[in-house]
Amino acid sequence: MKVVVWLAAVALLVGGCSGDGGSDSTNAPTTVATTQSPATSSTTVAPVSTSAVPSTTSTTTTTTTTTTPTTTAAPSGTGTIPVAAVIASVEAEYQTWWDYFEPEPPRGIAGPVEIACDHEVGLGFGAVVLCEAIPLEEREYWPEPFPIVILLTGEDGSTNHREDRGIAAAYAAAPAGQFCRDLIASESELSSYFGAVMYWFLEGRPDRMDADHDGIPCETVFPLWDIANFWHGSLLEETVDIHFGYITDLATRGSAFDLTIDYAFFLGGMEANLAAEAAGEITPGEGVPNDYYIVNENPRLRTFTLASDVQVLLQGYRDNIEAVATEPALWMELLEEVDRCDAAGWPEDCANLGGHDWHWYGAGYLPYWIQLDGDTVIRIEEQYLP
Fold this sequence. Notes:
Blueprint: E1 5-7, E2 33-36, E3 43-45, E4 78-81, H1 83-101, E5 113-116, E6 127-135, E7 146-152, E8 159-163, H2 167-173, H3 180-184, H4 193-202, H5 224-231, E9 242-253, E10 256-263, E11 265-268, H6 269-278, E12 291-295, E13 301-317, E14 321-326, H7 328-344, E15 359-360, E16 368-373, E17 376-382
Parallel strand pairs: 13-17
Antiparallel strand pairs: 1-6, 2-12, 3-8, 5-6, 6-7, 7-8, 9-10, 9-16, 10-13, 11-12, 13-14, 13-15, 16-17
């Protein structure tokens, strides 16, 4: 299989057009607790060595082939990072997963692989590398070589990768000049945050998808967990001012709202396994239930003011569980109702807390993600847990 490399700005370049377009324009116990997280298909890897960060492995394979976009400009994803170092880093992660679960790895684990990338130019931030992974062990769901996509997410060689289940073809079919809102609504492989970042790289990192020029595209339209997970372990992680934790208080101060949060760590993949193992919650090679783990060891509380136009998404139930947008005032009323119900032992009238057409699934007990702009909270999203 001929393997190719895409580098940012090698596809049709888009002018510097701008617009809002969806660009970025409960005090928990201090012990460790296991939980369940939504699945993620991408993995961040530190340069050369394996980085234990949230990651999962897909249980489906594809033999989709890819083609190189038309080159119209010198690539901006070139640099001094050797392709061999990138390959070794990703191969090491596959090996780490295999070694951890030996002698009975789950069916979804691909096992050790040999990765081939037909490219010799040094890589840099923004490179999109299409490669082929060749399984070195016989696996029921991984019977033959499969394509993967590697994104260079830092000048230090940090990467984020996933199996290619049609994302390269989705980019080839997508029009130039898309905004973040267009991608998330496309229902294609580009509607994932990984897909949006890949599109941004290949379009030459246009400002229309990163209006504040902080190097984090689409940070106001994709779920906060997806964004934080994608950049975890990269040089840009601190730029992503997104935090996980438990809301311990929501209070009014004049016409404003103040939120108090107890930060915690929401771990996934191998990082979750190793943390749970170190805490004695699982045995070596067992793996955490549902692939994530929450660590809360620091009791420090932090208080922030909510922006006047803050976005609050709660886990609500209509026909299915879904994110429901609400206002801080209603959220505060719901939290006060939770306190009343707790004190009363959850009588029958507390069974359906929520809005006029939805029930509150979390009922005040789920953790949250918050996004900050300085000391002001601009987005709040309740984390689904089963």
